[in-house]
């Protein structure tokens, strides 16, 4: 079946995880966890990645790899969208206030030789940064029918002394690159919905309220997105998650009436929550392991501080 030219999809994915995974015991010994290791293990976590390099280095590495694998010419990339969740991700060599204007997206455009690409960044949607970037890339392609490809890159590295835990989820550093292409023959975007509830903007003060709102908001958003695409929960072959705790996913699946076997959960223990990159890392790994097949419907769900919820439906 021919793919509509006004549609877009995810043509290529690459990701970068720094070094070797560190066991929770090692991370705890560094004073970077608040919850006891045994409890975090019961939530499904086992290890995480901590970077020695700044985020822009991870971003450059992963973007170079994706462009090489895709085989597209630099002049064919119409835009590059850079997503970061923490403030440190949005300036190269921060310290001097003037360096705040040294934007990594401009560095990437130059180093990658994307001379014709419009370059801009996405922030303030938390862990949904890459999802937001992909949505903006699709909108950009729809508005410019003569353009073909948009490169989306996310990278986040927490400060060395930052806690590696948020709402009982273990956090990894990492980077991811996604090529959004007009008329892509795989991972075609069928529907996307996103909601922001600014009432919860103060994530520390509103921690308990966010937890209370998380599940009912997610359930309603996912149901609305399925209805937008004329699908039911039973239409979904695989859920490609963000890597929050297994316990939270068990609750979510129960609320949606979806069996646990449909959740691609392999990476939760191994890599933890890689902030904005989870969905896309998991999509690549699921495809590489032949866990998803052509024509199947996939559901990507994400949540980011702010507070933002999103759901994206793909046809693989």
Polypeptide structure, described:
Helix content is 32%, strand content 24%. The chain starts with 7 loop residues before the first strand and ends with a strand. It is an alpha/beta fold and 316 residues long. The model is unreliable at 1-5 (pLDDT under 50). Strands 1-9-6-4-5 form a five-stranded mixed beta sheet, sandwiched between helices. The chain has a four-stranded mixed beta sheet with strand order 10-13-12-11, sandwiched between helices. Strands 2-3 form a two-stranded antiparallel sheet.
Quick tags:
316 residues; alpha/beta; Peroxisomal Thiolase, Chain A, domain 1; 2 domains; five-stranded mixed β-sheet; four-stranded mixed β-sheet; globular; disordered N terminus
Structure in a nutshell:
The chain has about 325 residues and is of the alpha/beta class. The chain has helices at about 25-30, 35-40, 55-70, 105-110, 130-145, 205-230, 245-255, 265-270, 280-290; strands at about 10-15, 20-25, 45-50, 75-85, 120, 150-155, 165, 170, 175-180, 190-195, 235-240, 295-305, 310-315.
């Amino acid at each position: 079946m021919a793919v509509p030219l006004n549609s877009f999809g995810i043509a290529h994915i690459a990701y970068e995880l720094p070094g070797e995974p560190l066991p929770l015991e090692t991370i705890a010994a560094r004073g970077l966890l608040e919850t006891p290791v045994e409890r975090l293990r019961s939530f499904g976590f086992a290890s995480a990645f901590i970077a020695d390099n700044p985020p822009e280095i991870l971003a450059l590495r992963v973007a170079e790899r994706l462009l090489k694998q895709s085989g597209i010419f630099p002049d064919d990339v119409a835009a590059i969208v850079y997503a970061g969740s923490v403030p440190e991700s949005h300036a190269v060599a921060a310290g001097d206030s003037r360096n705040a204007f040294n934007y990594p997206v401009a560095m990437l455009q130059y180093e990658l030789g994307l001379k014709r690409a419009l370059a801009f960044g996405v922030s303030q949607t938390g862990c949904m940064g890459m999802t937001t970037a992909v949505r903006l890339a699709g909108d950009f392609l729809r508005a410019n029918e003569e353009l073909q490809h948009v490169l989306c890159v996310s990278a986040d590295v927490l400060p060395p002394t930052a806690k590696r835990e948020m709402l009982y989820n273990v956090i990894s550093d990492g980077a991811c690159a996604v090529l959004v292409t007009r008329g892509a023959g795989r991972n075609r975007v069928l529907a996307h919905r996103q909601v922001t509830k600014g009432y919860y903007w103060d994530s520390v003060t509103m921690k308990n309220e966010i937890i209370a709102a998380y599940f009912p908001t997610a359930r309603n958003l996912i149901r609305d997105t399925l209805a937008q695409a004329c699908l039911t929960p039973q239409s979904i072959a695989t859920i490609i998650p963000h890597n929050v705790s297994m316990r939270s996913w068990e609750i979510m699946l129960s609320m949606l009436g979806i069996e646990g076997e449909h959740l691609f959960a392999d990476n939760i223990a191994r890599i933890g929550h890689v902030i904005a990159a989870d969905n896309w890392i998991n999509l690549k790994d699921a495809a590489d392991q032949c866990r998803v097949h052509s024509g199947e419907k996939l559901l990507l769900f994400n949540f980011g501080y702010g507070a933002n919820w999103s759901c994206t439906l793909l046809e693989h």
